[in-house]
Amino acid sequence: MIFPKEVEVIEVGPRDGLQNEPNLIPLEKKKKLIKMLSEAGFSRIETASFVHPKWVPQMANSEEMAEYSRELAITYLALTPNQKALERAIAVQAPQIAVFIGATETFNRKNINRSIDQSLEECKDLFERAKKANLWIRGYVSMAFSCPYEGEVAFEKVRYVCDELIRLGADEISIGDTTGKANPKAVYERFSRLRDLYPHTTFVAHFHDTEKMALANVVAAMQAGITKFDSSIGGLGGCPYSPGATGNVATEELVHMLEQMGCSTNLDLHKLREASRFAKTLSSRIQ
Amino acid sequence: MIFPKEVEVIEVGPRDGLQNEPNLIPLEKKKKLIKMLSEAGFSRIETASFVHPKWVPQMANSEEMAEYSRELAITYLALTPNQKALERAIAVQAPQIAVFIGATETFNRKNINRSIDQSLEECKDLFERAKKANLWIRGYVSMAFSCPYEGEVAFEKVRYVCDELIRLGADEISIGDTTGKANPKAVYERFSRLRDLYPHTTFVAHFHDTEKMALANVVAAMQAGITKFDSSIGGLGGCPYSPGATGNVATEELVHMLEQMGCSTNLDLHKLREASRFAKTLSSRIQ
């Protein structure tokens, strides 16, 4: 088995974790959270989303979050799903941007009211402009294992989106098990195929712990050569309307396992646990 | 990666899971639990413990449980840590017996007030007599990764106990991560070494989910050739005095993952989930 010496954990809690939180969280508390995360040693944190606040009110103060991230010297990721969002990211000189594309037509249409090809067309202009502004680009592929509308997702659908994102110039692709239904065998097979198809592309694994398999999936992804994982402090995230559903794999649990296995993360587990306790006070879903 | 076509899951909830339950559970409820488990398709269930009821009052009605297990045609395991216990097992013609030995001197002394060598000496007579009565023997090695008194446990300590149990004629050895602190790397390494040292011995992996790594550990153990796993319905077990501490890996979560990976267990997941809901009503620890 492969247990890499070093692993990068990318914290997505302040954006992916908090965006669905129904209660508006005061800016000062969000700032405190990313300060705690920064002090725990993260090199990258997703802290902003330039989606229109009409759609995601929780992220309305992303300019302030971006500014504060810069103050803390965090290399932050900012979600920029369209040209308007990209303009805001360029205005604050965000170092890294991220776009989302669903692997299934139904999800993509329900989520952003566009076909996959329309989304990719939009990415083309967006990536060109982002590259001119020297922004580094992450592409998220959502529903890369199963989809709430279409069920199990064929690998070819994931491959199609990856093909296009890579062709358009994405610097990194995060493969998301958005429904939390991936199992270690599927993870190993899917990431092995991606590695063989795109040996020069950096892939990140993004797992949800809905069915308790997230850490097992991390170990399986490692066997396919993955060394970068997204996670969310305290397990923030998931759907606020289904109290039992868990969110992203919890950063502190992931880091604990990695460190126990001798995979260095350069993160301070004690500080992560403190940050987790604080993060949970911001969530209406986690007790 | 190795994903075996078939896996045996051995249910230990009715004994290992319930024995520490502080409230006495009526016999009828325990019978109902093993009936539900039997109907879910288990070939083996640990249903009895012939430890003196003074020490484990919860298991006082083990003769009745043994009798009922026979009625249900369950191949049951009965814990028989000493000659008196073995006599009771022989009297009811238990098909399979089990003994426990801690891998660390301190745990063994605190748990059963004997040195490891004294325990092994006792096993010698016990195994001889059990074999004459045609009983099949499982040896549990507890604290095979870490110990609450001695911390991390050296592999040589586990090896020593395995050596002796195998020499004395154990038919199967269950390696227990009793504290729930094992990680996938340690699991892979330890089971690989055991397989290389004892290629003809059947090993079972017995994980607790204390630190959320149980399912990841199952996947790691598979890579070392393990195809038998203990689990406890509803995650019963653990210490009743530390409410946060989880017990054995939950059978329904284990079986769900295995089936998702195409590893057949011959168990009915729907019935397991029903049994899990019932099991949780018996526990003062699980909500």
Automatic annotation (TrEMBL), chains A, B:
NCBIfam families: PRK05692.1. GO terms for molecular function: hydroxymethylglutaryl-CoA lyase activity. Gene3D superfamilies: Aldolase class I. Keywords: Lyase, Metal-binding. Its EC number is 4.1.3.4. CDD domains: DRE_TIM_HMGL. It is an enzyme of class 4 (lyase). Belongs to the HMG-CoA lyase family. Residues 7-273 form the Pyruvate carboxyltransferase domain. It comes from the Bacteria. The keyword Transferase does not apply. PROSITE patterns: PYR_CT. InterPro entries: Aldolase_TIM, HMGL, PYR_CT. It comes from Anoxybacillus andreesenii. SUPFAM superfamilies: Aldolase (SSF51569). This is Hydroxymethylglutaryl-CoA lyase. Pfam families: HMGL-like (PF00682).
